[in-house]
TrEMBL record:
It holds the Pfam family GFO_IDH_MocA. This is D-xylose 1-dehydrogenase (NADP(+), D-xylono-1,5-lactone-forming). It catalyses: D-xylose + NADP(+) = D-xylono-1,5-lactone + NADPH + H(+). The keyword Oxidoreductase applies. Its EC number is 1.1.1.179. Belongs to the Gfo/Idh/MocA family. Residues 151-279 form the GFO/IDH/MocA-like oxidoreductase domain. One of its GO terms (molecular function) is D-xylose 1-dehydrogenase (NADP+) activity. It comes from Mycena chlorophos.
């Protein structure tokens, strides 16, 4: 059977678009994938900056002349050769950009956090339904082979049920020395830790607890959030949040910071503590390459004693953003409007958590930034 060729339009020429395009351009056969092909057909930059789009194509797509450089996003949405739009603009633009793409009848893969709040996401999902298009948040961690292996390991029951999940994602953004207009500092762009980094500790809680079979996708019964703001612009520099899953009898203890180095190498970025063992996931938690599992014994005197340990390594061609792209292609081929792995319900849960954490932490976006409230 001939592979389906999914034709992508790329919205913006920023950092993450560069990474995504590089992964899209890896020949899937070199990754042992033969049912899908990805083709970038158009790249858009705002404000008439067609030269910026051309430069992007030169730099990240080997100057491929078949790719159309566009000086507006609208030109990309209107391109009849484009099947699906990838949105890589700052968070607070995701709603408008996604809506424009949906209204043009395009499928959408939108970067995380999918919107500024839950109300925007609900409106987008209604629009996607009305226009009959596929919509997914680009929660790439959910599709990586390591994540799939951990979900299988938990479901196998070998470790018993998960009881506490700790996860942190931090990055030192050098806040004192970047412009206040940088997307990580600017409140009009949804700056701060929770919206930018928070999706990753949260995805570990969702994969290990929310998705754990006996939780039956029951949302957290309680959410707490605590925020330390930077005086520079008032966005959250550090955020800690917890989620209680009462049905499961489990808790997630999560955090994110914009002014601390990420724990790298051997340091665990996420720890999943189960009744009969521990899984330690190596940082960075958005694309971990290894995890260590420690299994407690069940024999006499072996409770809380490690009887087996194993480290699992994961390596593949590319940065790891292509796994989510493959999922988009397969869903579209099968006429599905959402992914079974990272569907609308999980993005809605994510945005509800962030709304609550920002509310408890006193971080309100400036008036008008949230397009739907
Ligand atoms: N999945 C992942 O691993 C990552 C995801 N992200 C997500 O991707 C999104 C973009 O992040 P990133 O690529 O780092 O950001 P960048 O600042 O590098 O790029 C954003 C691009 O958006 C366009 N843009 C449109 N309007 C604005 C505006 N008002 N201010 C600034 N830029 C604007 C610009 O492109 P142009 O002028 O060409 O239109 C700009 O280059 C964020 O939502 C972030 O959360 C970010 C990093 C990693
Ligand atoms: O998605 C992301 O992952 C890596 C981080 O460094 C980045 O700020 C964030 O947007």
């Amino acid at each position: 059977m001939a592979p389906i060729v999914l034709r992508w339009g790329i919205i913006s020429t920023g950092g993450i678009c560069a990474d995504f395009v590089k992964d899209l351009r890896i020949d899937p056969k070199t990754r042992n994938v033969d049912d899908i092909e990805h083709k970038v057909v158009a790249v858009g930059s705002r404000n008439g900056a067609v030269d910026k789009a051309k430069e992007f194509i030169k730099k990240y797509a080997d100057g491929d002349e078949s790719i159309k450089a566009c000086g507006t996003y609208e030109e990309v949405y209107a391109n009849s050769d484009v099947d699906v739009i990838y949105i890589g603009t700052p968070h607070t633009l995701h709603y408008d950009n996604s809506l424009d793409a949906i209204k043009a009848g395009k499928h959408v893969l939108c970067e995380k956090p999918v919107t500024s709040n839950a109300a925007e996401l609900k409106a987008l999902l209604a629009a996607a339904k009305e226009h009959g298009v596929f919509f997914m948040e680009a929660m790439w961690t959910r599709f990586q082979p390591l994540s799939l292996a951990i979900i299988d390991l938990l479901a196998s029951g070998e470790l018993g049920k998960p009881v506490v999940v700790h996860a942190d994602l931090s990055g030192d953004f050098d806040l004192e020395n970047i412009p206040k207009t940088h997307r990580i500092l600017d409140p009009t762009l949804g700056g701060g830790a929770i919206l930018d980094l928070g999706p990753y500790p949260l995805v570990w809680a969702i994969m290990s607890l929310y998705e754990y079979p006996t939780n039956e996708n029951t949302p957290p019964s309680k959410i707490t959030g605590s925020i330390v703001k930077t005086p520079l612009t008032g966005v959250d520099a550090n955020t800690a949040f917890t989620l209680n899953f009462n049905k499961l009898g489990a808790q997630a203890v999560l955090s994110c910071s914009t002014n601390l180095s990420m724990l790298e190498g051997d340091n665990p970025g996420a720890v999943i503590r189960c009744e009969r063992g521990i899984i330690r996931v190596a940082a960075p938690i958005y694309v971990p390459k290894s995890f260590k599992v420690s299994v407690f014994g069940t024999g006499p005197g072996e409770r809380n004693k490690i009887v087996r340990e194993e480290e699992k390594m994961f390596d593949y061609i590319g940065r790891g953003m292509h796994f989510q792209a493959d999922e988009v292609a397969r869903c579209i081929r099968e006429g599905r409007k959402e992914s079974a792995l990272w569907g609308h319900e999980k993005s809605l849960l994510e945005m509800a958590v962030f709304d609550e954490v920002r509310k408890q932490g006193g971080y309100a976006l400036p008036p008008g930034v949230e397009r739907v409230v």
